[in-house]
């Protein structure tokens, strides 16, 4: 159930090139993630847990807003290192050491995250600034012998890497709401810098880039599973809790299948894109549009935890919004991602997003386990349709997980 745009996917001319000369040889783009990246990403496993903890510690609009701001800061830190390891070889001892030092700084920031807007504000900001300083230094050092255009682009991007965390450090010295406003400004600098500075000359390795972003989806889903298990273990004798656990796993599985059922087509799409057009596609489809995918899962993790804690009761409006809105956000972000990637509207995902939002009235008026059951049915029905019809999206058939 897909609708095609007039131009099937775009490079700079708005069309997807199919000529053999734009295809890379299998060996040229066959690099995959290494153990260093997997080790580095362990900090983000803990980071997702800390973001949900921050939201759960203050279930209010202010608490949710702060959680979103924290996620924005952490996400862009991860994005910058994903681009670094995509573009340059970091297997040398010096580079590996610097990545580990950045990991240590990130770990300090993550530990301070629950108090990042109160007593831990300065520690969080300083640690995040250290993470970005290492990142910027590695970018500059690695690009020294690179192509002129690539090195020039990196020099334009580097100031934005440092201004954002510097604003978060400054936020530690002002009270709310000015503190939060500085975090908003930091996010605007982070996300706006690539648009202003451009991405000309940057390199994208399709297999590596798609695999790396798939790993962060797994990390986010892992947090949803951890949140589910952590609270369910307290009352396993309750039939409703057991049912909620089953529903939570099934919902997570349908989200997983929704995303990973199209990774083959996504990688082929990137390979077919001309090298000079890949950075813009990678920035839009992955650096930007994967954020709402991750955010949707994080909201769902918050919602599922509250749902299991109050399995026999209706949810408070914010918890209900996290649960139903998180699932809806994931499906809606999937629609936006696939549109940017292939210029096709995945109508089944759009319908699933709308249906998930419509569960909200039930979530605030009926036992939480019922809402989980309905969200499970929505996800299973959408997936069943996809596995039955196997629609072609881009160059891939939906539903095939490798």
What does this structure look like?
With 402 residues, the protein is mainly alpha-helical. It has two domains: 33-203, no CATH class; 204-402, I/LWEQ domain. Helix content is 72%, strand content 2%. The chain has helices at 35-40, 42-56, 61-87, 93-112, 121-143, 148-171, 178-197, 206-232, 239-260, 263-272, 278-288, 290-309, 317-342, 347-357, 360-363, 368-389, and strands at residues 2-4, 344-346, 392-393, 396-397. It has a two-stranded antiparallel sheet with strand order 1-2. The protein has a two-stranded antiparallel ribbon with strand order 3-4. A hairpin with a 2-residue loop joins strand 3 and strand 4. Helix 3 runs parallel beside helix 7 and helix 6 (148-171) packs antiparallel against helix 7 (178-197). The longest helix has 27 residues, at 61-87. The protein is globular. Residues 5-28 have low confidence and may be disordered. Residues 15-26 have a biased composition (Basic and acidic residues).
Biggest sheet details: 2 strands, antiparallel
State which percent range the strand residues make up: under 5%
Shape, please? globular
What would CATH call the class of the largest domain? Mainly Alpha
The strand count comes to: 4
Structural domain count: 2
Overall helicity? over 70%
Overall average pLDDT: 88
Weakly predicted, low-confidence segments: 5-28
Strand order of the largest sheet: 1-2
- Run of helices and strands: EHHHHHHHHHHHHHEHHHEE
* Gyration radius, rounded: 21 Å
């Amino acid at each position: 159930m897909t609708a095609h745009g007039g131009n099937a996917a775009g490079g700079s001319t708005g069309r997807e090139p199919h000529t053999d000369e734009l295809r890379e040889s299998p060996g040229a783009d066959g690099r995959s993630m290494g153990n260093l990246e997997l080790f580095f990403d362990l900090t983000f496993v803990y980071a997702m847990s800390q973001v949900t903890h921050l939201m759960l510690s203050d279930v209010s609009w202010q608490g949710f807003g702060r959680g979103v701001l924290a996620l924005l800061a952490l996400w862009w830190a991860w994005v910058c290192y994903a681009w670094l390891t995509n573009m340059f070889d970091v297997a040398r001892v010096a580079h590996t050491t610097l990545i580990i030092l950045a990991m240590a700084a990130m770990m300090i920031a993550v530990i301070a995250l629950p108090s990042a807007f109160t007593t831990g504000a300065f520690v969080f900001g300083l640690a995040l600034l250290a993470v970005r300083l290492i990142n910027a230094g590695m970018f500059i050092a690695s690009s020294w012998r690179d192509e002129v255009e690539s090195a020039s682009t990196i020099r334009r991007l580097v100031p934005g890497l440092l201004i954002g965390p510097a604003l978060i450090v400054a936020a530690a010295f002002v009270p709310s709401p000015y503190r939060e406003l500085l975090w908003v400004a930091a996010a605007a600098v982070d996300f706006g810098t690539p648009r202003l500075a451009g991405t000309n000359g940057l390199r994208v390795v399709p297999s590596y880039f798609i695999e790396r972003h798939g790993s962060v989806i797994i990390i986010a889903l892992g947090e949803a599973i951890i949140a589910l298990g952590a609270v369910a273990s307290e009352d396993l004798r309750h039939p409703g809790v057991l049912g909620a656990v089953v529903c939570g796993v099934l919902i997570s599985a349908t989200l997983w299948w929704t995303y990973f059922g199209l990774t083959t087509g996504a990688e082929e799409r990137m390979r077919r894109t001309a090298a000079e057009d890949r950075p813009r596609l990678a920035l839009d489809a992955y650096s930007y549009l994967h954020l709402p995918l991750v955010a949707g899962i994080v909201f769902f993790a918050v919602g599922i935890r509250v749902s299991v804690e109050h399995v026999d009761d209706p949810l408070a409006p914010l918890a209900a919004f996290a649960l139903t809105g998180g699932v809806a956000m994931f499906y809606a972000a999937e629609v936006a991602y696939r549109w940017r990637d292939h210029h096709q509207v995945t109508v089944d995902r759009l319908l699933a997003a709308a249906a998930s939002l419509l569960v909200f009235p039930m979530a605030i008026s009926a036992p939480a386990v019922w809402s989980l059951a309905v969200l499970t049915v929505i996800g299973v029905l959408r997936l069943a349709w996809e596995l039955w019809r196997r629609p072609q999206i881009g160059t891939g058939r939906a539903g095939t997980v490798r």
